[in-house]
Structure formats: C-alpha cells, structure tokens
TrEMBL record:
Keywords: Signal
InterPro entries, alphabetized: Ubiquitin3-bd_protein_But2_C
Native organism: Hyaloscypha hepaticicola
Protein name: Ubiquitin 3 binding protein But2 C-terminal domain-containing protein
Listed Pro residues bias regions: 138-149
Length: 205
C-alpha cells in the first residue's frame, strides 16, 4: 500500500511548527472512528525519548526527535519508555497505534510493503541523545511474536508481560523499530491532541 502526505498536513502545519502541549486524557471518552483497540487506556505511558540512528551513517548522533523515522535498510528509531514504581505487579502492554489519514490529524508519510522489525534492549538501559547506530544500548529480550506488518487503520499489540518494575525505583525499557522495505515518518502524538493517537504507547493493567 502506498500513501502520501495527507492534505490535512497543510492545514495543521502551523500547529506542528509550534510546541505541542499535552492534553489530559479523559478515561470515559471514546475517540470516534479510531481503529479497534486504538484508543488510549486511562493509564498509559508515552515514549520519554526517541532517537533516530542510521546504518549508513553509523557514527552520527541525530539527537532526540518527536518525529520517528524508518527507511529501508538505513534509518531506524529507538524508543525509550519509563515504567513507574506504581506499576509493580501489574501487566504492561506495548502497543503501536496506527490510525489512517482520515482518523488522525497527525501528519505522517508511509510508503512500502509495511514490514518492520522491533528489537529490544536490556532492561534498565536506553538510548541517549548521543546514541548512534554503532553505539546502541546493550542487547536484551525482544517481543516473542511482534507484528511483522504495520499498516494504517490498525492498532497493534507488540508485547504483553509483567511490567518488571521494583518499587521504589522506575524501570527504563527500550527498543528499536526498523524496516527493510518501507519509509515511515510520523509525529508521535501525546494523547489525543490531534485526534486518534499514533505511535508507541504502554498501557498498565
């Protein structure tokens, strides 16, 4: 499936160019026309840091971004999430929410076969703004059966398991999203600020 930038991108260009503010999520609110299971739970976590890395420029640090970038056999993006002490004994569900253009105002570009890989890093480690492709966090467990295809109009469960946090400490978890056949760039939203949320989120239950 080949998609191009939505004409809606132009309409919100001025919004994206300015700092976006976190909007509170109301637990009883259901966003209309989102993909099945594509709404955020009352308690959810967003990435705390997203860092692009490049196979073709393996020693270049690109710093933090709010617009993750994946290109065929080159750019990947590392995502950090911090699990709070309050999640001790709970279950964490890592999801990728991917609404279609008609379901979100968040701009994105998607072109290719939609095949992706998700590689996990060791618990308690994560990327920094100085991370490069040649200087990634230590290897760790990866999701056993992550979705191999991500396409618009769907919500994907990447992994489900114990949160693994031990109070009173928080736990940083991290992973890298890559593709060998798809260019995908998007604006990771914070909650429902631009309609249906898009990107990685962790639900705690």
């Amino acid at each position: 499936m080949k998609l191009t930038f939505s004409f809606l991108t132009a309409l919100i260009g001025r919004i994206v160019a300015s700092p976006l503010q976190r909007l509170s999520v109301i637990s009883s609110r259901q966003l209309e026309a989102c993909p099945p299971n594509g709404n955020l739970p009352p308690d959810y976590l967003s990435p705390t840091l997203m860092v692009p890395v490049s196979r073709n420029l393996p020693n270049v640090a690109f710093g933090s971004t709010r617009e993750p970038k994946m290109t065929p056999n080159d750019f990947c993006t590392i995502f950090n999430l911090v699990i709070p002490p309050s999640a001790m004994g709970a279950t964490c569900t890592l999801e990728f929410l991917f609404p279609s253009f008609g379901q979100t105002l968040s701009p994105y570009f998607y072109n290719g076969g939609g095949h992706f890989t998700f590689t996990g890093y060791a618990f308690g480690t994560g990327a920094t703004e100085q991370t490069t492709y040649n200087n990634q966090p230590p290897a760790g467990p990866s999701p056993p059966t992550p979705p191999s295809v991500l396409s618009p109009g769907n919500a994907y469960t990447v992994n489900v398991g114990p949160c693994g946090v031990q109070a009173p400490n928080s736990l940083e978890v991290s992973g890298m999203l890559c593709s060998d056949d798809t260019t995908f760039e998007y604006l990771q939203t914070k909650g429902d600020e631009l309609g249906c949320p898009i990107g990685f989120f962790v639900g705690i239950s």
